[in-house]
């Protein structure tokens, strides 16, 4: 495995917290920072996946409900506009 040195500065308190946590986990400080970065990236990816899933579920539910209630195309478009404006981050068509 090829490695690369990255130097960064942390506020004193943060650096001490990192050292303390590394000692508790019995891992080198560099390994702890790598694990933290990896965890952060994975968490951000999970957030994106959950957002996509939420949109897919909302779209499927919207389609099902507008079909079952026999909405006209105009009613459906009005309902979609309302949902898109009221639900943050959700987009239905």
UniProtKB/TrEMBL annotation:
What domain of life does the native source organism fall in?
Bacteria
Write the protein's name: CopG family transcriptional regulator
Give the source species: Paraglaciecola hydrolytica
């Amino acid at each position: 495995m090829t490695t690369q040195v990255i130097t960064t500065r942390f506020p004193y308190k943060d650096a001490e917290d990192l050292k303390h946590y590394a000692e508790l986990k019995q891992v080198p400080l560099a390994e702890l920072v790598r694990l933290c970065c990896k965890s952060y990236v994975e968490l951000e990816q999970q957030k994106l996946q959950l957002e996509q899933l939420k949109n897919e579920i909302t779209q499927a539910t919207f389609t099902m409900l507008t079909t079952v209630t026999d909405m006209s195309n105009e009613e459906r478009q009005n309902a979609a506009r309302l949902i898109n404006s009221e639900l943050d981050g959700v987009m239905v068509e």
